[in-house]
Every structure is written in C-alpha cells, then in structure tokens.
Amino acid sequence: MKPYQRITEIGHEALLYTTSDRTFKAVGEAFDRSGQNVRIHVLKYYSEQSDLAERSTPPLIGMDEISLAKGKGNYRLVMYDLTIPWRPQLFLMHESRREDEVIKLLQELPQPERMLAVAIAMWRGYKTAVQAVLPEAIVVIDAFHVIQASTKAVGDVRKDVQKSLSKEQRDALKRDKEEKTALLKWRKYQDRYERRLKQNESQTAC
After folding, report:
1. If you write DSSP's letter for every residue of 148-181 in order, what string do you get?
2. What is the largest CA-CA distance in the chain?
3. How far is it, in rounded angstroms, from Cα 24 to Cα 36?
C-alpha cells in the first residue's frame, strides 16, 4: 500500500488544506509523517483534478502565497474559494506567484464574468494581475494581512520610542504597564465574582 493511501478521507482533506499556508516539512511534522510523504499527497491530488478551464469559477477568490523555504523568497501561489467566507476551500496551488504566471492562470478561468471580488495578500503583483484580466472585479486586501502589517508597524514604533528613553523612563514605563495589567486582571476577576453572586441570588430566590 502506498503512503498516501494510509489516511482517512477527512484527514487527507485536512492535510491538503494545511499545505496552503505551511511548508511540506511543517505539515509533515503536524501529521506525523515526512515532508516527502506530504508532497506525494499534494501531487496525487492535483494530478486527479480537472483542468482549470473545466472548473466552475467562484464569485469570491482569495490569493495568497507560502514560502517553500522560509527566508529564501521562493513562493508558491495559493488560491481559495471564498464563496463561504468562514469556510474557505482550497481552489488551486501553483509553483510560482510571478505576475505573468498569475495573469496566465486568471486567463484560464472559465466564466470570468462570475468573479465579483478578489481578496489578496499585500503584494502588488496580485493587484496588477487581477486588474489586467478581471477589470470589473473588486480588489481588497485580506484583513489578516492588514492587521499583521498594522501590528508590525505599531511594534516598530514602540521599539523606536523605547530606544529613545532613558533607563529611568523605561523602568517607569514598565512599572506602569505592570500596574495596568494587574488592574485589568482584578477588574476581570471582580466582574466574574459579581456575575456568580447574582446567579446564586437568582437561584436562591427561585
């Protein structure tokens, strides 16, 4: 029996979905198998899929990428069917996110007029490709990437401010943070205690 056959259908789907944002090695560690074994699953799955031109084009698509080797810039394209936003389905993976190849993939989509909107990662090539092939589609930045970029920007500013402070100022800021954290924990505990007290009173009254 081949390695890719020793897994349930649900497990196989979960493994495929996980490969959309992790390397084969990372997925293998999560599923207790080698990265090569994960690669076999992915290749087998896509070899059995119908050509892109034969698939139904979803009205909402997400475009993202994953690095095959972290820090080395070797990205593969991942596209999701976002018809049900809270349950994205893996639509396709491609070995490269190069703009010309993204354009070629979009041109192969059947019924492009069905495409209403595309949620993309913060890479200009996606926007250029979509606007070139699907000018009527609305292009938005995926909320995850907006939050990620905003969090990093705030973190960078915080680090710069801390570097400009004297040791006394940093110590005072640290104490202030600790005091606020302790106060928030106390308020949370107090709210929980008051809710339980009210619940007990209402049960006693009954």
Report:
1. HHHHHHHHHHHHHHHHHS-HHHHHHHHHHHHHHH
2. 72
3. 7
Tell me, yes or no, if the pTM score tops 0.70: no
Residue-wise pLDDT tens digits, 119-160: 999 889 999 999 999 999 999 998 888 888 899 998 898 888
Between the two ends of the chain, the Cα-to-Cα distance in Å is 64
Q: Quote the CA–CA distance of 199 and 70 in Å, as a whole number.
A: 52
CB 59 within 8 A of CB 119: no
Nearest-10 Cα torsion for 193, 194, 196, 201: 140
Spatial distance between the Cα atoms of 53 and 154, rounded to a whole number of angstroms: 43
C-alpha angle 50/108/106, rounded to 5°? 115
Distance CA(89)–CA(25), nearest Å, equals 22
Q: Answer yes or no: are the C-beta atoms of 89 and 62 closer than 8 Å.
A: no
Q: pLDDT tens across 2-35, in order? A: 444 467 777 777 777 777 667 778 888 888 888 7
Element (H, E) at 80: strand 75-81
For residue range 97-116, list pLDDT tens digits in order. 899 999 998 998 888 888 89
Sheet-wide strand order for 75-81? 89-94, 75-81, 60-67, 117-120, 138-141
